[in-house]
Amino acid sequence: MESINVNWLGRLFSKGNELKFDGSHLTLLNGSTVLAKYNLQDSYNFPIFEKGLFGSKIILNAKQSNKTIKFLRSKDIEQYCDNIFRHISRYIQHNIEGCKEEFYNCAINEYLRDSSVEKLDNLIVPLTQSYERQKNEWHNYLPAQQIDFLVSCSKYFPLEKGASELRSRFEKMTLQARKKFYDEVESNPLTEEQRLAVIRDNDRNLVLAAAGTGKTSVMVAKALDLIDRRITNPEQILILAYNKAAASELQERLENRCNKLGLREDKSPKIMTFHALGRQILLESNLSVRMSKFSEDPLKLETWLSKWFTERIKNNEVFMKTFIDLSYQPINPFDFKTKAEYDAYIRDNEYRTLQGDRVRGYQELLISNWFYLNGIEFEYEARYISKRRIQIGFDYKPDFYIKDADVYLEHFGIARDGSTRPDIDENKYNQDIIDKRNLHLECGTTLLETYHYNWTEGNLEKVLAHHIANLGLPIKKRSNDEIFKKLKESGFLLDGIKRYLKCLQAIRVEQLSDAGINERLTEQGIVNADKYTDLLSNIHQAYQKELLEQDAIDFDDMIIKATNAVENELFTPNWSHILVDEFQDISGSRMNFLKKLLSKGNSPRLTVVGDDWQSIYRFSGGKLELTTQFKERVGSCSSTMLQKTFRYNNSIAEIAGKFVMQNPEQYRKDVITHTQVETSQVYLLDSKVQNKENLSLRTVQIIQKILDQDPYANIAVLARYRYLLNDAKTEISANRITTPIKFWTFHGSKGLEADYCILIGFFQGKTGFPNQNKEEAVVEALLPSLDSYPHSEERRLLYVGITRAKKKSYLIADPMATSEFIVELLSPKYNLHIASQSFEDQYRQIFKCPCCTTGYFKLRNGKFGNFYSCTTGEVCKSNPRICSKCNAPSIDGEHSSTCTNPNCRSVTKICNKCGRLMKLRQGKFGEFWGCTGYGIEHDQCKNTAKVSSFLGIKFD
């Protein structure tokens, strides 16, 4: 044991007199008493010896901290320095070897995981930093190959800057080494994107696909790749599918490929649905898995809820009134800003009274139902005794005629100050009220009046009761049995039960408490949120009680209780890899289940595969944001996009992709197709046969034309609603078409394909597409939040429909009540093949030149890009721009350019002096419009304009 003496100052201040070195430790002693002991095995570099006026000192650099020993005799240090360095070099070499092994294991021989980054940084960064500080010592005492290793890997560290390069290196190496396997693992060689999705094996991996890009192939190939490379055992791989059909397809594909590759089948990955996994966990946790009779037969659940409502409606007048009141969602007409908004709402949302009349608004419905419940005989919008007109073009029909009293009642839409709905001429409306009163005076009839403000002030029913009392009419309240019979016969009761079943499903899948129910209803502006909460809470409690009495669970319980079993460590997950299919449709409860499997397992790696463009199952709990916000929800991840498809051609890809990508809240993808065509393969046709509306027969005609050109064609008919498919099926059968035709709802078509797809049902209204029905506002409020882009899920649904076609897609629409989606698709940017004169005429009007009588604008290509010019030729001076939103022509005015597409009408601010675009700029006095020609040296334009000069104009 070598010894370094402490000088007299050291003895005075540190009480030590000797520093001993035994090869692995430096020990400070005072005689035989140990004052401090320093472990050299943790060394990441050599000690630093410094001479000073009061003796020498040693600075030791360890993993955790630096240690300084002062007041040492310089002569002793010089004598033993080399020996100490040689011992420490062995420890540094050992540390380097350990770090090298860890580096190769974590970053060279496998895909670098995020969870390995901090560990490798902590191991290697201190070594590389030490080398940079002590290069001479390292070269003198350490082998060259170890220094070469540090120098070569230092470029990657810290891994914040080098992780992506290491991963890319691993990907290139694996692509080359595993080429044969990736060529043969599926029936067709994997694309490069698919191969990368297989190779990337981070802690969390997101694979985003487009329709037809081979999501299932990635799932199968990844599982087999992990097994073939012996990264893990088959039984340690868990594959979760969305439903039984998907699980069966994956299982079949996996077994088939195992056979082709000669892999053992005795042990294979576990492929299950979330519910099947939940059941297995409950069984292994010794918990009940007895299923409720409701889960086995949904009709029994409907029968149970029907009985629950029946008992309360028949026996409780207050409950019966509440049920009726909550069957309608109140709407204040004064909230609509334009007539178009109001008309669309009335068109798409039906207010059907207990008497069976369809009335024009919520307040008229309240009046009608009050009359019915109180036994007042009345007629809605009966003919007046005199054929007179108050409004141009319309015979006068008072809102209500009270038969027993021979009295009329008008409900006027005015506030107390006489103001009206924003889109109504207040003066004219109030004059019409005066004219109606005068007409009744002239004809000798009695007119009763109620007003919008009676409803807003909460006393409409009191005013009605007052009017009836003044007429001397008796109130003859209908019995609960009579009302119940009416509710049942009219379908009113069944509609309500089905609505509340949907509410119950949403509450269960979203795991909503009473407070959670109320919070969602309130956030969505549901009127009577507290009353709905009470009713829904009572339904949910009754349902839970029924499950207890059955001593059973439902499918939601299967997930929830399995999650709790994992949380309480009744079950320990032992999978090394978890793969999830159709992730875009995962619900909140399934995600919680998945997170628990990850947190309670042995650091399993997660790979999720999905397509945010095909997220269409919100009604069953699907939460798109779990995909679009994957990184924020689960942490750092590796992402791969599958963008090459072999299913459909570039025309279908471009139109469907451009349509769905209008929503900025989704991922952008650039889909590449194997099949390339020169012309549009998405056809727009009208639904008329011999100038008469006949959607089903028009469908038959298109099928016959397809079969004329391709007798062995594989054809599918798709619709938003099943009744349209039934109508088409009946017509096809009547026309004796023997070729098998497939009939799919848009939702049911997911994952399927056909050569030719005919999409029907593009019209306006309650059962149109996109669906405009607001009657389900309460259900909508309880479902997972929806991205804010208009009709976002319906838009994705159409994307799914269009991309089922391999060759051609046909869209049949009503040109007289055109769907909002068809209106959008008529924009030039979509390049639809318009095969209908009605739609062609609409389309041509977009391109009509306003400067000459015969010319139309045509898009041409010049040396500076695309431009429009008039077909009349150079004699027409018209020079339109290209609209930045829809690609239609845009005509310049003095201060702005306006798109000619009536469904776009985008307005762009232009300079009134030179015609260049104007841009909003920030000056010392605030915002102003400045010409974009300001920076052009040879032709500068300094024109500006005040923002206030154009208030009320929305520029794009």
Written account of the structure:
This protein has 956 residues and is α/β, with parallel strands linked by helices. The strands form eleven sheets. It has a six-stranded parallel beta sheet with strand order 10-9-17-18-8-19. A six-stranded parallel beta sheet has the order 26-25-27-28-22-29. A hairpin with a 2-residue loop joins strand 5 and strand 6. Helix 3 crosses helix 5, helix 11 packs across helix 24 and helix 28 packs antiparallel against helix 32. The longest helix has 35 residues, at 74-108. The mean pLDDT is 91.
Summary, kept brief:
The chain has 956 residues and is of the alpha/beta class. Helix content is 43%, strand content 19%.
Describe the structure using short key phrases.
alpha/beta, six-stranded parallel sheet, 34 helices, single chain, 956 residues
Radius of gyration: 38 Å
> Which strand-content bin applies to the residues?
15-25%
Structural class: alpha/beta
Instruction: Report helical residue fraction.
Output: 40-55%
Number of helical segments with 4 or more residues: 34
Described by strand count, sense and barrel closure, the largest sheet is:
6 strands, parallel
The main sheet orders its strands as 10-9-17-18-8-19
Low-confidence stretches are none
**What do the pLDDT scores average to?**
91
C-alpha geometry? globular
Strand count: 38
End-to-end CA span: 84 Å
Describe the SSE topology.
Layout: E1 2-5, H1 8-13, E2 18-21, E3 25-30, E4 33-39, E5 48-52, E6 55-61, E7 66-72, H2 74-108, H3 114-133, H4 135-141, H5 144-154, H6 159-177, H7 179-184, H8 192-199, E8 204-209, H9 215-228, E9 237-241, H10 244-261, E10 270-273, H11 274-284, H12 293-296, H13 298-315, H14 317-325, H15 339-348, E11 351-352, E12 358-359, H16 362-373, E13 378-380, E14 400-402, E15 407-412, H17 426-443, E16 446-451, H18 452-456, H19 460-471, H20 480-489, H21 492-510, H22 514-523, H23 529-550, H24 555-567, E17 577-580, H25 588-600, E18 605-610, H26 625-628, H27 630-634, E19 638-642, E20 644-649, H28 650-660, E21 672-675, E22 682-686, E23 688-689, E24 692-693, H29 695-709, E25 715-719, H30 722-734, E26 741-745, E27 754-762, H31 777-782, H32 792-802, E28 805-813, H33 820-825, E29 833-834, H34 837-846, E30 857-862, E31 865-870, E32 881-882, E33 889-892, E34 896-899, E35 907-909, E36 918-923, E37 926-931, E38 944-946
Parallel strand pairs: 8-18, 8-19, 9-10, 9-17, 15-16, 17-18, 20-21, 22-28, 22-29, 25-26, 25-27, 27-28
Antiparallel strand pairs: 1-2, 2-3, 3-4, 5-6, 6-7, 11-12, 13-14, 14-15, 23-24, 30-31, 32-33, 33-34, 34-35, 36-37, 37-38
